[in-house]
């Protein structure tokens, strides 16, 4: 407690806070001579400081320099002096220089710490190509180029040129080796390059039938122990001996190559064994050939080896072994579906010719009828009927409908199950050919034979559907679903029937159930989107269309529909995005083209709209309105000369178009052209001719016109929603008081169009089929039914 002092009442607790050292007083700096001299000097350089304050290491000693005696410099305020000149004495030197400044710098010198004022940097030193390293690199590049040129010449069939390039590469490579040895780089020889040169030279010799030279080159590679896996080239040497008909030597080298190839390279070993077998056949040693071929058929069977094995057994007259070999041959997988091997492809003309030639040859006839005839004469007659049905379906796959119909008609007098299956497929074929009466007849025949056949019920419902009896069609589809609850075709067609009957909630329920089964079906999702649009729920429609886009992102109709829905919601930017994407994938949709052109005009970018209306002009060259819109865009963007030329061109093509003549008169007047009187005269004549025609037609059929007008207005009221949005957009464009814009001859039709075309609204039939549609080219319809 003795160190604790209590404050007295008269003591001021806040005293002393306003006291400060006079050294830091800045009010008197204007009268401080030393400070003012320091300010006026260049960069405020300071004179040496004196130790005014006690306790410093400098003490009170004055500083001295070579420019003067020891002079203590202090300010009037007791502050250390700055670097000003004191009483005429020169500024003392210091031991530290600031970055970028030197003692030789004078007033007005430029701050240049990087030395940029010295001019541009000297150019880079050129690479000396005379060094040994550069010569070696240059030679290596030349050798590689020559090898590549040799291979290219061989691929183009110029074998002599390929050989010359290979020889030149060999000479260059030998020069490269000598260059390395002379430069002291003998230990850096590129073995891969030497191997490539020798191998290419040997191959070119062999291609030019210079077999001794080729063998010598291969021998050089094989005997060099520094080349890894060179023993494989003995296969090439064996091939040369085979061409020379030196079969013992060929066998020897094939076996030597086989010994040097490990079991890991199974494919290579099989090919060598196959060659050995072929050589034994040429030598007439069929037993040795059989040994090789049997080993191959047990390890990796293939058609060529199996056929050769049968020939060997035939040569030694072992019939039982021939049968065994034939069974092995026909069990070899061909890598192609039996049903598709006679279906021609579109991209290979030569293969198509071969398929067409063998489609009905004797072997194919045996293949087609042997199994069926054998089964018909056995106790398994039902299997023969199934094979006949499958044969008819194969004809359908090959689009040979006449043969399919003939095959199926043979079942009309068979038992009920087979008759129902055949009649179902016949009904489907006639439905595809739009012979709906025959389709209905065979659908009834299939139902009579088997009432529980869901495919027959679907076909019957489809024939009723196309006759617009949707209630009856729905009943058939529901009966098919009662017989087979997993029948997706029946559920899809039932949804279409409900939609046609305007029972939208029931249709929505059908397609939601179908979506749970077929999760990635674009058709189902599109139908759901359309139903939500009809139910006036555009947000849900947009969501479903987005799912369609996730499955088929390049479908232009779906993209255009998304643009239409976003436009209806007032989201112009999204609408523009989807319309632009639709135009990118299908630039011939007039509705999309017109919307994009109108959008650019509405946003005052008329020059961007020109390209769309010009495309519309190419698509519909007889429609004058597109050409008028092109001219109007030029005029709106201020390009009056191009607008005038366009209107003149329109007038040449459509001399009686009143709107074109009116704009020509207006433009010629504004531009002060002499042609205005000529166009004005033509305009009066055309207007007078049209007035005469109007009066004449009015006298002849005014009553009929009034009646048709009333009917037309009633009909247009019913269809008013089809083109409202785009037509309103075109009518609301700037300067709509102009003749063309005010009285468009045709309103735009923005009605709903299914991306699948008419087939989206057509019911699915119950036969096995694959629908190819333009808009869903890569999309297959739901699981098609096979007759039971």
Automatic annotation (TrEMBL):
Organism: Scophthalmus maximus (Turbot)
Residue stretches of biased makeup (Basic and acidic residues): 694-711, 761-772
Keywords per UniProt: TPR repeat
InterPro entries: TPR-like_helical_dom_sf, TPR_rpt
TPR repeat copies, ranges: 231-264, 270-303, 454-487, 488-521, 522-555, 556-589, 590-623
GO biological process: inner ear receptor cell stereocilium organization; intraciliary transport; kidney development; non-motile cilium assembly
An example Gene Ontology CC term for this record: centriole
Chain intervals with Acidic residues compositional bias: 773-788
Lineage: Eukaryota, Metazoa, Chordata, Craniata, Vertebrata
Molecular function terms, GO-annotated: kinesin binding
Region of interest called Disordered, as start-end residue ranges on this chain: 104-133, 694-788
Official protein name in the record: Intraflagellar transport 88 homolog
Lineage: superkingdom: Eukaryota
One Pfam entry name: TPR_6
UniProt xrefs under PANTHER family: INTRAFLAGELLAR TRANSPORT PROTEIN 88 HOMOLOG
């Amino acid at each position: 407690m003795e160190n604790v002092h209590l404050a007295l009442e008269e003591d001021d607790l806040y005293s002393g806070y306003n006291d400060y050292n006079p050294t830091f007083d800045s009010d008197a700096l204007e009268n401080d001579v030393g400070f003012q001299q320091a300010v006026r000097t260049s960069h405020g350089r300071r004179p040496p400081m004196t130790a005014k304050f006690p306790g410093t290491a400098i003490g009170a000693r004055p500083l001295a320099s070579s420019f003067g005696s020891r002079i203590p410099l202090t300010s009037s305020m007791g502050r250390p002096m700055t670097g000003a000149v004191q009483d005429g004495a020169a500024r003392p030197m210091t031991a530290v220089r600031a970055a970028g400044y030197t003692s030789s710098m004078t007033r007005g010198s430029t701050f240049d710490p990087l030395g940029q004022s010295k001019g541009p940097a000297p150019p880079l030193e050129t690479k000396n190509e005379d060094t040994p390293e550069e010569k070696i690199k240059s030679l290596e590049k030349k050798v590689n180029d020559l090898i590549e040129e040799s291979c290219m010449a061989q691929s183009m069939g110029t074998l002599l040129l390929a050989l010359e390039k290979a020889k030149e590469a060999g000479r260059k490579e030998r020069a490269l080796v000598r260059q390395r040895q002379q430069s002291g780089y003998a230990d850096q020889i590129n073995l891969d390059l030497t191997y490539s040169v020798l191998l290419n030279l040997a191959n070119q010799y062999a291609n030019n039938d210079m077999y001794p030279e080729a063998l010598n080159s291969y021998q050089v590679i094989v005997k060099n122990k520094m080349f890894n896996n060179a023993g494989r080239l003995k296969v090439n040497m064996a091939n040369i001996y085979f061409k020379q008909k030196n079969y013992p030597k060929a066998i020897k080298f094939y076996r030597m190559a086989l010994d040097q190839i490990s079991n890991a390279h199974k494919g290579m070993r099989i090919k060598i064994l196959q060659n050995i077998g072929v050589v034994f056949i040429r030598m007439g040693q069929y037993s040795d050939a059989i040994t090789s071929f049997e080993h191959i058929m047990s390890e990796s069977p293939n058609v060529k080896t199996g056929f050769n094995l049968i020939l060997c057994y035939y040569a030694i007259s072992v019939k039982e072994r021939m049968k065994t070999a034939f069974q092995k041959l026909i069990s070899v997988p061909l890598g192609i579906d039996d049903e598709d091997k006679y279906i021609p492809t579109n991209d290979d003309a030569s293969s198509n010719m071969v398929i067409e030639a063998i489609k009905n040859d004797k072997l194919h006839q045996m293949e087609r009828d042997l199994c069926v005839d054998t089964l018909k004469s056995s106790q398994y007659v039902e299997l023969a009927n199934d094979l006949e049905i499958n044969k008819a379906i194969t004809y359908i796959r090959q689009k040979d409908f006449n043969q399919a119909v003939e095959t199926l008609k043979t079942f009309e007098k068979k038992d009920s199950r087979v008759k129902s299956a055949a009649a179902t497929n016949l009904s489907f074929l006639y439905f595809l050919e739009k012979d709906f009466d025959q389709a209905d007849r065979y659908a009834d025949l299939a139902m009579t034979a088997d009432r529980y056949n869901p495919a027959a019920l679907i076909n019957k419902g489809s024939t009723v559907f196309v006759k617009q009896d949707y209630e009856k069609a729905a009943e058939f589809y529901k009966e098919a679903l009662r017989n087979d609850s997993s029948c997706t075709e029946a559920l899809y067609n039932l949804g279409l029937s409900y939609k046609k009957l305007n029972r939208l909630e029931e249709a929505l329920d059908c397609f939601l159930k179908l979506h749970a089964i077929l999760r990635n079906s674009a058709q189902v999702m599109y139908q759901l989107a359309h139903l939500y649009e009809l139910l006036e729920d555009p947000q849900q429609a947009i969501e479903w269309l987005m799912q369609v886009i996730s499955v088929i992102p390049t479908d232009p109709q779906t993209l255009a529909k998304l643009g239409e829905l976003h436009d209806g919601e007032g989201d112009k930017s999204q609408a523009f995005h989807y319309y632009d994407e639709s135009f990118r994938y299908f630039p011939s949709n007039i509705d999309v083209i017109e919307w994009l052109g109108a959008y650019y005009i509405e946003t005052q970018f008329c020059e961007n709209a020109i390209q769309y209306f010009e495309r519309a002009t190419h698509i519909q060259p007889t429609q004058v309105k597109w050409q008028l819109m092109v001219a109007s865009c030029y005029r709106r963007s201020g390009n009056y000369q191009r607008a005038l030329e366009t209107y003149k061109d329109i007038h040449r093509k459509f001399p009686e178009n009143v709107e074109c003549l009116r704009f020509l008169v207006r433009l010629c007047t504004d531009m002060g052209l002499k042609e205005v009187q000529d166009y004005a005269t033509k305009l009066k004549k055309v207007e007078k001719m049209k007035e005469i025609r109007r009066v004449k037609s009015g006298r002849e059929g005014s009553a009929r016109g009034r009646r048709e007008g009333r009917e037309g207005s009633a009909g247009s009221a019913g269809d008013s929603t089809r083109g409202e949005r785009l037509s309103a957009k075109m009518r609301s464009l700037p300067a709509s008081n102009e003749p063309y814009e005010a009285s468009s001859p045709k309103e735009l039709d923005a009605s709903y169009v299914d991306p699948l075309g008419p087939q989206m609204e057509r019911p699915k039939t119950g036969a096995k089929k694959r629908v190819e549609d333009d808009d869903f080219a890569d999309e297959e319809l739901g699981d098609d039914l096979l007759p039971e």
